[in-house]
Write a structure and sequence with these properties.
The chain is elongated, with a radius of gyration of 27 Å. The chain is an all-alpha fold. Helix content is 47%, strand content 0%.
Length: 116
């Protein structure tokens, strides 16, 4: 009988840290920021850090992504950012057209079988 490898599955220390650990880390960082910025409250520390981040372009992007959410990235993997021109559907086979129609309708297609 073969032994199972220890790759994958549940492991000690895996997964998200507990809320207590997360709050402890936040407390440590807020204490450090308060000391560096010489402020008394957590809110003042957060505001001082945000003001400093706003002086850098990357800091502005960091704040915007956390406040408004990161924008969706559009990646063109088919045309190399060149406009697709003269796309003639009449050159496609019936099977290819069928696949396009199914994909457009949101229907699943079987890509494992060989094409006709």
């Amino acid at each position: 009988m073969e032994e199972k490898s220890n790759k994958g599955g549940a492991r000690e220390g895996a997964g998200r840290k507990s809320k207590v650990d997360e709050e402890k880390t936040n407390t440590i960082f807020l204490s450090m920021i308060k000391a560096v910025k010489k402020v008394d409250t957590d809110d003042d520390a957060k505001q001082a850090l945000a003001k400093e981040l706003f002086t850098f372009e990357r800091g502005q992007m960091f704040i915007a992504e956390h406040v408004f959410g990161k924008p969706k990235e559009k990646i063109d993997v088919t045309s190399g950012d060149s406009p697709i021109q003269n796309f003639n559907l009449s050159k496609l086979s019936d099977a290819e057209l069928s696949v396009i129609l199914k994909l457009h309708a949101g229907q699943p297609i079987n890509t494992d079988r060989e094409s006709d």
